[in-house]
Amino acid sequence: MRDKIIIIGASGHGKVVADIARLNGYKEIIFLDDDESKNRNSIYDIVGTSKDIEDYKDEYDCIIAVGDNTVREKIYHTLKGIKLAVLIHPAAVVDKTAVIGEGTVIMANAVVNADVVIKKCCIINTAATVDHDSIIENFVHVSPGVHIAGTVHVGDRTWIGIGGLVVNNLTICNDCIIGSGSTVVRDIKTSGTYAGCPARKVK
Ligand SMILES: CC(C)(COP(=O)(O)OP(=O)(O)OC[C@H]1O[C@@H](n2cnc3c(N)ncnc32)[C@H](O)[C@@H]1OP(=O)(O)O)[C@@H](O)C(=O)NCCC(=O)NCCS
Q1: Is 156 annotated as a binding residue?
Q2: Ligand 1 binding pocket, CB closer than 6 Å
Q3: Domains in the chain, please, with CATH?
Q4: Is 153 an annotated catalytic residue?
Q5: What is the pLDDT of residues 100-142, one digit of tens each?
Q6: What is the pLDDT of residues 5-32, one digit of tens each?
Q7: How far is ligand 1, taken at its centre, from the CA of residue 175, in Å?
Q8: What's the CA gap between 169 and 151, in Å, rounded?
Q9: How many CA atoms within 13 Å lie on the side-chain side of 42?
Q10: N or C: which end of the chain has fewer CB within 10 A?
Q11: Which residues form the PglD N-terminal domain (predicted)?
């Protein structure tokens, strides 16, 4: 780990990621954002767009702080093999057997239990819990206050909205959106938007 980090994505989510970086000991924190009209994010400078990463990659650790899973994945593929940091808030609880992939951020008060695997560039947001033996594939966003029970499999780019619940032993396939406050009680095998309690396909 270096003591400088560059964060791609200067939205509100980026600000929260910056503070986790600070708490992880990064002394210098700067941003890139593809909206060229932005030049500050809270107390941090925005020094260019994501294309400028080449100028910083040798000196700075890097992370993508974009909440939209598809956009985050697109940016990841432009980075051409730059290894991303993992950021875990000091107030998160992550079991020592859990495996956390590059580019993943685990936010304050999240809990990741035994033998969980969280792959690349995921967001485990504030106070979310992921229970034992679950597998969270690449570019997933688990929103604040979500609870995922044991041995759940969540596919690539799926977004579980704020306060959602997923019952144990289920699979949710790639590219799903689970509405805020919804409860998933059956496997989801077709990509789409699901909401309600129990969650049903709405789109
Ligand atoms: C699921 C969601 C993405 C759907 O948004 P949308 O694609 O614009 O869809 P709509 O608002 O048109 O809703 C479609 C239907 O699903 C229902 N619906 C939407 N969200 C719902 C929810 N959370 N729970 C129950 N029903 C819901 C709507 O009432 C509507 O039903 P109708 O057709 O009978 O009127 C959105 O409602 C949602 O929950 N987003 C999550 C936001 C979030 O968690 N943000 C946290 C960021 S960290």
Answers
A1: no
A2: 125, 143-144, 161-162, 177, 179-182, 193, 195-196, 202-203
A3: 4-78 (3.40.50.20), 87-194 (2.160.10.10)
A4: no
A5: 999 999 999 999 999 999 999 999 999 999 999 999 999 999 9
A6: 999 999 999 999 999 999 999 999 999 9
A7: 15
A8: 5
A9: 14
A10: C
A11: 4-79
